Amino acid sequence: MKVLQDVKCGISTFHIRLTYSRVEASIRIQNFVEKIEGCKRRKVDAKNCLDTVKDKSAITGVENSVVSTTEVIPVDEKSSNGLQDNEPSETHEFPLKKVNEPCRLECLCFRTPIYFGGRYLKYSRNVSQTRWIIDEERMGEASIEEIIGGNILPMCRGDSYKFHAAGREDIDVRMLGSGRPFLFEIQNAREVPSELLVKEIESKINSLENKLVRVKNLKIVGSQGWTLMREGEAEKQKQYAALVWISRPLQDEDFQTISSLKETQILQKTPIRVLHRRSPLEREKIINWMKIEKIAGSSQYFLLHMCTQAGTYIKEFVHGDLGRTNPSIGSILGCRAEILQLDVTDVKMNCFLTE
């Protein structure tokens, strides 16, 4: 086509699919093929080829069509395929009779997914990362997915979106610092926002009255956004600040005990609170460093700052999870320890940072 039309051809996210069909001719071809022994046929349901297109009204009639790929054994090889000379000649009729009636043409326009990358911050302890419904009841007042996606999707006039993040935090945990990297995948976008419009989307999200979520460094990225996310996830570290209570007064030597622990290996069994949805495994994790910040006027409450390997269960590391995490803050200090609040203060990934 490129040579015949004498035009340049490049790769684009926008595609046009033309499907030509004629029922009578298709039936004749099918009947002809069925008479040939030794042929190989492969049928592909056209509907399965269009899974990425959500607007089904645009392809009415196409979903019931069948695309056939047929390998026909030449006539001079008929003896090896069991064909006899006395078989009816119409069996070998080829090419078929010319058809002068018009065929049916279906035109389908669609776009491959476009991706938005950035980092989000979460300031509420009642916002989930994704939409969370249990027994038809919403958990939390909103979700990161809906707040950001609800502002991006209308600007792109897409069919739907998918949300991907580099890890996740519990609904009652805030995401602070530089934010958590994320990708939004927009299906079949009819408009690709300009860089200026993307900045307007970011400003709109950040100016919402409830101030639950903030977005940083929002931009359109190619499929290489997946590569950046995967490379960072493998080696990423996360920093936390936890409000901790212990069953005895904090002593001076406790500061040294905690701060002296570097690159400490811990063993964590799957926490009891997630056993209903996670496999019962034992994981090795690394606590890179820790330090205690004393709270004025309190002897049993303190802030615990720490940096850990991604995937560490921080809540269980503090209270021990009935001995399923070892060591824990409780076992290190030799007392009962409980975590009251938790914040993620940084996600160490070179992904979607300020340029």
From TrEMBL:
Pus10-like C-terminal domain ranges (all copies): 115-347
Q: Supply the enzyme class, top level.
A: isomerase
Its BP terms in the Gene Ontology are: tRNA pseudouridine synthesis
UniProt cross-references to InterPro entries, sorted A to Z:
PsdUridine_synth_cat_dom_sf, Pus10-like, Pus10-like_C
Gene3D superfamilies, per this entry? 3.30.70.2510, 3.30.70.3190
Q: Keywords on this record?
A: Isomerase, tRNA processing
- List the molecular function annotations (GO) for this entry: RNA binding; tRNA pseudouridine(55) synthase activity
This enzyme's EC code(s): 5.4.99.25
Q: Look up the domain of life of the source.
A: Eukaryota
Isomerase among keywords: yes
- So what family is this one in? Belongs to the pseudouridine synthase Pus10 family.
Give the protein's recorded name.
Answer: tRNA pseudouridine(55) synthase
Q: Which organism is it from?
A: Citrus clementina (Clementine)
Q: Source taxonomy lineage?
A: Eukaryota, Viridiplantae, Streptophyta, Embryophyta, Tracheophyta
